[in-house]
Structure prediction request, 144 residues.
Amino acid sequence: MRSTLIMLMLLVAGSTLCKAQCDQKVSVVASKTTHLDDSGTIKNTVDEQTTVSFDKTDVTVAIKRDGNAMNMTGKVKTYVCDWKVPFKEGKTTLGVNLENGNGESRSYTITIEGKDGKVILLATSPDEADEQIKLEADKFEMVL
Prediction:
């Protein structure tokens, strides 16, 4: 009975921690951006620091390359979050509309997936069906 109670408490604590990740602002930081075609073949790779920060309502993307910076912001239209092991095993899918500094706007589906110790972000846009943007996270963490 005692071991069952301890197991139940551990399950509740783990579930609370996983839910806490989904309820907090988090960020993905990557030092390389890979551009893929619609079949997943690599088109090119760019060394740049990209930070994607988001919660259930807002998303920001900051890209730094060769001393230049580009920022995009937007609203989250759809949000699905399910992590078995916080920041390691699970998936978040965002439907977002991002606007750059010039006022240009584009819809994206952003999927962040943790699997086998890696966290990968994949962004696709119906406006550019032949291109996918992939980031392998150097860091994936809560923003304080």
Residues 25 and 55 are 4 Å apart (CA to CA). Residues 3-18 have pLDDT under 50 and may be disordered. DSSP finds one helix and nine strands in the chain.
